[in-house]
Structure formats: structure tokens, C-alpha cells
Design a protein that fits this description.
The chain is of the alpha/beta class. The chain has a single domain, classed as Rossmann fold. The protein contains 11 helices and 7 strands. It has a 5-stranded parallel beta sheet with strand order 1-2-3-7-6, sandwiched between helices. Strand 6, helix 8 and strand 7 form a beta-alpha-beta unit.
Length: 314
């Protein structure tokens, strides 16, 4: 990894982390008009994967997609306005936190229905194969999505047609509150992909540098016509499933379980490799951008009443 790549990766992860932390601070005020699913603790996955993608590639995710949107180049002010339900939002204030998207950066609208983004991104991959060889689609999803039927069906279809599709599972060990050990006989999610001939890669410790290498290599093979690939990144969600707080007192997981993941915070690992002076400049730029985005969202108007019926197709 070059110094420029390291700095870009640090900037992306730091930016996402701070956006999520500020979102958590604002949320109790009720200015944000939709539920929020924060990526704190696992934001480096989107950053590492999107670093390997190009402008013409397509991405999509679930309700926990702030990191994907920002890592792919989404406009922060537009995202903040969207969470505020404002007309200047990336979806005109109609999607909120769970349904962000941006055609300008190649991010299809996020889906709050578990796993449904996977076949949608396969459709994009099919279109790209026919119309734009060399480009690819990447679907981001959690471990719970691998238990939906469309995950297997999409894997099979993608393998059969050798689609340029990258499947990225952010495995944080829980489907809401239910641990993986109570849902699956084995915990290696890549075996399903491998059974269909789809190469599967597992980064068990969530290491950001390993993820970046694995993603870059997988993307290169997909662009060359190698067909779909699957990445399982083990991570850990620091905050509650939905909302701004911690939830260790709820009894389904413990702070002791989280401690090793927090102690190996990938943002800290990245920061340690960046010159302190350069890092201070980047951090200040990020804080200024976030403050401006919040001010923009605060001042932006809500959608006019007439918008209630626009963009409704059925």
C-alpha cells in the first residue's frame, strides 16, 4: 500500500467514524427523522472495498449503509439533509437514513428489507456485463442476509452467468440480537459460495490492510471476467442494532466480548501509520466538513407538500 493509498484509507475511515459519532449525538434531539443503524466499529470494510472500486462501478447496501455511501464518494451534506428529512437530501428527504442512495456516485438506493439488495446488485452486474465490460457491482450485507433464500439463489445465478459481482458480507456475529452460533451449524459463511464454485475469502480478524489486499485482488479478477467472488469480513458492531447508544446491558452480548475488537480498532491502526502533522490536518478538515453538513441540513427546507405524490409509481 502506497503512502497516498494509506492516507486516503485513513481519511475515509476517520470521516465515516466521525459522521456516525456526530449522528449519534444529534439523534436524541429528534432532528433526524428516521431510525439510524450506525457502522461504528465496522466502517473500515466499506472503506477498504470501495478503495478498490472505480467511478463507474455500482454499489448497494442495507439499512446500515452510511459507510458505503460515504466510501463510494457520496455527498455528506446531502446525506445529512436526507436524515433530517429535507428536500436537499440525496433522496429528496423521502428515504431517510435507511434508504440513502446516489446515482451520481453509482450507489443504488439502500434497502431495509434484509438481503434484497443482493439480487438487485446481481441485476446491475448482469447489465454491466452486457453493456459495460470491465465494470462491476458490489453488494454489501450482514451475516443475517446469508440466511435468506435470495442469497443462495443470487449466488447460483451469478455463478452460472459469471457475473461481475462482488458479494461483501460484514459479519458482525449478530442478526439483530441473535448470535451466529445459534443460527448456523458452521460459522464459515463462504462455504455456501464455494459449493457453487464462487471463490470465497475470509478475513477473520477484520484487519483493514488484509481486507484492502483481498478486495483489490478480487476486484481485479472480476474485471478480467473471472466471475463473482465472495468476501466475509468478521467485524463487531459497537453500538446497538438500531439507534445511537450502547446496548451491553440488554443481556444478549457483553462488554467483555466487545473489548478485543475495540482494542484493535482499525481506525487507530490506520492513524498510527500516518504522520501526526498530516493526520491533524485531515482531522481538522473532516470536522469542518461535518459542521458545514450539519448546518446545511439544519437550514435546508422540508419538501413541499406537493412532493408527497411525486416519484410514486404504484
Amino acid at each position: 500500500m502506497t503512502e497516498d493509498q494509506l492516507i486516503d484509507l485513513y481519511r475515509t475511515v476517520r470521516r465515516i467514524r466521525r459522521v456516525e459519532e456526530v449522528t449519534a449525538e444529534i439523534y436524541p434531539s429528534d432532528k433526524i427523522k428516521s431510525p439510524v443503524h450506525l457502522a461504528i466499529g465496522q466502517e473500515h470494510v466499506a472503506a477498504a472495498v470501495c478503495a478498490a472500486l472505480a467511478e463507474g462501478d455500482i454499489v448497494g447496501g442495507s439499512y446500515r449503509s452510511h459507510a458505503v455511501y460515504l466510501a463510494k464518494g457520496g455527498d455528506l451534506a446531502a446525506m445529512m439533509a436526507e436524515m433530517y428529512g429535507k428536500d436537499a437530501g440525496c433522496c429528496r428527504g423521502k428515504g431517510g437514513s435507511m434508504h440513502i442512495g446516489s446515482a451520481a456516485v453509482g450507489m443504488v438506493g439502500s434497502s431495509a428489507v434484509v438481503a434484497t439488495q443482493i439480487p438487485v446488485l446481481a441485476g446491475w452486474a448482469l447489465a454491466l456485463k452486457r453493456r459495460a465490460p470491465g465494470r462491476l457491482a458490489a453488494a454489501f450485507f450482514g451475516d443475517g442476509a446469508t440466511e435468506e433464500g435470495c442469497f443462495y439463489e443470487t449466488l447460483n445465478f451469478a455463478a452460472l452467468h459469471r457475473l461481475p459481482l462482488l458479494l461483501v458480507c460484514e459479519n458482525n456475529g449478530y442478526a439483530i440480537h441473535e448470535p451466529l452460533t445459534r443460527r448456523r451449524a458452521i460459522d464459515d459463511l463462504g462455504t455456501v459460495a464455494e459449493s457453487l464454485g464462487v471463490p470465497a475469502h475470509r478475513v477473520a480478524d477484520g484487519d483493514v490492510f488484509s481486507l484492502a489486499r483481498v478486495a483489490a485482488a478480487a476486484v481485479a479478477r472480476i474485471r478480467a471476467g473471472g466471475g463473482p467472488e465472495f468476501i466475509e469480513a468478521r467485524v463487531y458492531r459497537w453500538r446497538e442494532h438500531v439507534g445511537p447508544n450502547e446496548d451491553f446491558e440488554q443481556g444478549y452480548r457483553s462488554r467483555e466480548e466487545a473489548a478485543p475488537w475495540m482494542e484493535t480498532d482499525q481506525l487507530v491502526r490506520l492513524a498510527e501509520r500516518v504522520d501526526p502533522g498530516r493526520r491533524a490536518v485531515i482531522d481538522a478538515e473532516i470536522e469542518a466538513e461535518i459542521a458545514a453538513a450539519v448546518a446545511f441540513a439544519e437550514a435546508a427546507p422540508v419538501p413541499p407538500v406537493g412532493e408527497l405524490r411525486s416519484d410514486v409509481y404504484a
